[in-house]
Amino acid sequence: MKVAATEELCILLLTASCLVLISGLQLDSMPYDYYATTECVTEPQRAQYRGGIILNPDFDHSIHDWTVFGNGTIEERVSNDGNRFVIASNRTQPLDGFSQKVQLNKGIMYTFSAWFQLSEGSDTVSVVFKTNGSELVRGGNVIAKHGCWSLLKGGIVADFSSPAEILFESENPTVEIWIDSVSLQPFTREEWRSHQDNSIERVRKSKVGFQVTHPNETALEGATVVIKQTKTDFPFGCGMNHRILTNIEYQKWFVSRFKYTTFTNEMKWYSTENVQGQENYTIPDAMLKFTKENGVSVRGHTILWDDEKFQPEWVKSLSPDELREAATKRMNSMVSRYNGQVIAWDVMNENLHCHYFEDNLGENASAIYYSTAYHLDPNTMMFMNEYNTIAYSGEKIASPANYIRKLKEIQQFQGTDGISLAIGVQGHFSSGVPNLAYMRSSLDLLAATGLPIWLTEVTVDPSPDQAEHLEEILREGYSHPSVQGIIMFVGPAQAGFTSTPLADENFLNTPIGDAMDKLISEWGTGTQTVIADRRGIVDISLHHGDYDITVTHPLTQSSKKLNISVGKAFSQEIIHVKMQA
Q1: Which residue from 147, 148, 305, 494 has the highest number of Cβ atoms inside 10 Å of its Cβ?
Q2: pLDDT digit string (tens) for 396-428?
């Protein structure tokens, strides 16, 4: 029998301005359901959003409203527990199976979910939207298996209004595809933004109250309370390159905005050992000195890179034994040198799309080097770092399911017990409308691991709407409950960041820079001024971080200063401020 996740685990809905009955009250719009699991389960849960616009989503009415696409047959089956589902058999082509027609509307976000099982083995199953007669738009995939149910969670953003046929793709046409609990839920952009705003309010902010009084503890109406954030709890930063060492304007521009960074190239192997045996850390050493002096935290990027074309030239001609020795020497040199000086390590960059070290040293190469890095610097987070996982809904190699499978290989490898493993998703987006529905669903799936998630290299390809798209992506990342940091691989044009420049050659903001500064201000780093009401009360919601507070008497102009730290565990009790006469 299916479990109704939204009924039994309603806390997971993380209510965001929704159409749901609570104690008989009807709110305004549908909440977003952040629930996801990467486990293969005995019985699927009921369809999210009761199926949304899908008809007969739980197959309570046999195969009514579902049709065959291509070759094959579809039929209903019932499990021993009474759960109804549908199977597609006698398939001859990848897209053969069940289908249902829906209407897609331009500008609407569609979140998709369904549970899948195969008659034998395992294979990737994708959801595909067939539009305009022949165009195929993929909305995500899952690794389906025999003997248990796996959740596919994904989505699309419609850039057209058109009827569409929902199809399901498996490259192995000899297996039966089993499906259950299908959902396609539309959200307007306004609803999507309300999810973000409510999530930010819930996970990034806390309520703070001040009561300002006279010396006799009577309320002091009209007192001015100036609130200035001195440090943010959420790591939000920008890539940095070697030009910062000699460019004073670049230095001023950077430190006035960011406290987190990743060196874009300067720590990579081809930068520190271009000639075998001649290590040169002069530039990253100088950059680390600069960041320390300015209170900027650094992510270590990257110890090794699994792509052959990004190895130092001399590495490419090494034998496997020589490569193992060179990589071990590189690992020991890099990690030991900067032990405790970086907040994270990208250990083996892009080891889903690429497998240079696995091809030469064996299938456990990545896991071995994660174990090595962990033992060299045990208190620092060790990241996987991949592209397309959240940015491209047609991705299979680095899909959330394959990403998590690789994570588990590392976690289960001997010598990694206790490792602080973390998830790095680069976030390189193309120039079209970003698929935020897929991005959020992918983050939901990755979040089911319980590991920290960072967006590590966010960029957007040039287009007239580049600034708008970057803002949408950053807001989506910041608002997701499980994202713990964001680094953009962008910067000023004078420093060579020409594809996504935040500032021009004169360090004047571009439209992208304006969008970024707007978010920095919105997320709590600006100064706020509020006036105490007739009760002497100031109630305000503040982003997590450290604050300097100045309270000024409305008549005498005397002031009182205090410092507070606002975090997830911040007490909502009133802070009493007694002013002098």
Answers
A1: 305
A2: 999 999 999 999 999 999 999 999 999 999 999
Tens-place pLDDT, residues 491-500: 999 999 999 9
**% of the chain with per-residue pLDDT over 90:** 90
Query: Could you tell me how far CA 411 lies from the centroid of its own chain?
Result: 20
Look at the block and give the residue holding tokens 């040169």: 280
Helix (H) or strand (E) holding 229: strand 224-232
Cα(490)–Cα(340) distance, rounded to whole angstroms? 26
Averaged pLDDT of the chain: 93
What value, to the nearest 5°, has the Cα angle with vertex 201 and ends 199 and 205?
125
Within its chain, how far is the Cα of 533 from the centroid? 40
* b/e sequence 290-325, b meaning 16+ C-beta within 10 Å: bbeeeebbbbbbbbbbbeeebbbeebeebeeeebbe
Could you tell me the pLDDT band of residue 22, with boundaries at 50, 70 and 90? very low
Radius of gyration of the chain (CA): 26
pTM: 0.93
Catalytic residues, by residue number, are 350, 457
Describe the crossing of helices 365-376 and 320-337 by its angle, rounded to 10 degrees.
30
Bridge-based pairing of strands 559-566 and 501-503 is: unpaired
